[in-house]
Amino acid sequence: MQKTLPSYLAEPQIQYLSQLLDDIQNGNLFIPKFQRGLVWDDKQRLDLLRSIKEGIPIGSLMVWRTTQHHLATFGKIGGQSLPPQPEPTPGVPRAYLLDGHQRLSTLFGALERVPDNSATESSDAEENWNFFYDLEDDDFILQGRRKSKHVLLPLNVLLDSLTLFKFQRALKEEALIERTDQLSTVFRNYKVAVVPLVNNDLEYAITAFKRINSSGRKLDEVDMVAALTWGETFDLREELNKIKDRLVVVGWGTLEDKFILAACKTRLSVSISDKISISNADADETSKGLKANPAIINEVAEDLVKVAEFLSNHFGIKSPELLPYSYQAIFLVEAIHQVYLFENKDVIEQLKRWFWYTSYTEEFNGIKERGLQEVLEEVLSLAHAKTSFRSGKNKINSLPKRFDFRAARAKLVLLRLAELQPHHVTKGEATGSEVAELLAVHGKNAVIRVFPSNSSPENCFIVSPKDHPAFRHRLLEQTKWSNAFLKSHAISKEAAYALKQGDYDKFLEERRKTLIEMEKAFIQPLGLDYESEEEET
Fold first, then answer.
1. Which of 49, 78, 319, 475 is deepest in the core (most CB within 10 A)?
2. Could you give the 3-state DSSP secondary structure of residue 433?
3. Given a cut of 50, is residue 116 above it in pLDDT?
């Protein structure tokens, strides 16, 4: 049952834009933290300003008014700090924005004065707020994104009469002064409809927020679950940030929120409710499960740290970016929760076979919910030593023609190359941990294409970003390389000879043969081999 407030507070209102911005600045309108951060790109923000200039409606806002709830809110929007919420006064409603965050954040950042660089938590910390109006091109721009030699009017003077007057005094052309007056008048007189939702039911307000945001630029699953689970003592985004802080220690601080949530969903599907889908974005069921079982988040955090260590020690994978498939780590999280894997060598060997087999067969490409459930059951059975891993498919695609760091097969090429411990340009031999760390820290930037226009795997080498020029010079300009250096970079004698002769096509052809030999040597003990050339074509 809704807990309503007096009906006169629920009347829709038409307000001047400047009044709404003042309400934010003066602490009369707040942005609750269950909102997602700013997701609009520059074009969307500039188009909003153009709409106002042209008198096009920008849509109504929805505000929740309540006398009983004191929500956590963003302390900074539009690059500017906001006043803290006052202490609750019995019977006095406070207003929280439910719909319109992207629009008001854009307008507040563009039109309000004195941006600052304080460290207050923000919904838009990384954005550029240097909005200007090009008085000669008659259009809005973001300074820094596009340079202009024209006369630029800072938008944050439009609503400040004194500052605008000072700006106009420096203008030499009457036409430009008139243009600034016209623009200022448009923004001062622009009105926005505000629709209030007036009650004291937090669940009702969050449900309204969910339904409002089911159209337009949709919230992703993390956004929606964060909103639906939000409470005055629980903030999913804060919990996710805490998990990532713990993962920093093991090099996994860059793990995306959606994968942490997927690990939580897997735990819920196994131990709480089979209604919760691992792959499908059912925010309602997931949020119900997390609200009823918030301890799962800390459990998953502990298990993610263990899995990161497990993957580092047994697979040379020191960052989530190098995982062929995220579901592999997600399922290992569940396995490691149920079984202590580190002391059982047989189980570790079975899981290693499973991991590499599913990577090379690209088993997770296009996999559906039922398939995921079956793979999860298989992993748990292996972890409990109930079964041994049995391969099914025994033919895989050959070495890809193109290297794309995002693809599983490309990451597998890197992991095989890393096992060779590729030598530094000047220091010589590198340890396996050094190479793994290089890939973990620099990701795709630790991969150099010796010939920039060629994107094939055979043209890719693991090299520290700072050494890229020196490596290319050593390979192409020098003619003496040690056998150890060549071997560590998968360069055969035939490839080295072709390189010395300046036959770069032959060099790449020979190196591809070496990469294929390396890959076959790895996959054949797994019961795998390449499709025949005829089947590939």
1. 78
2. helix
3. no
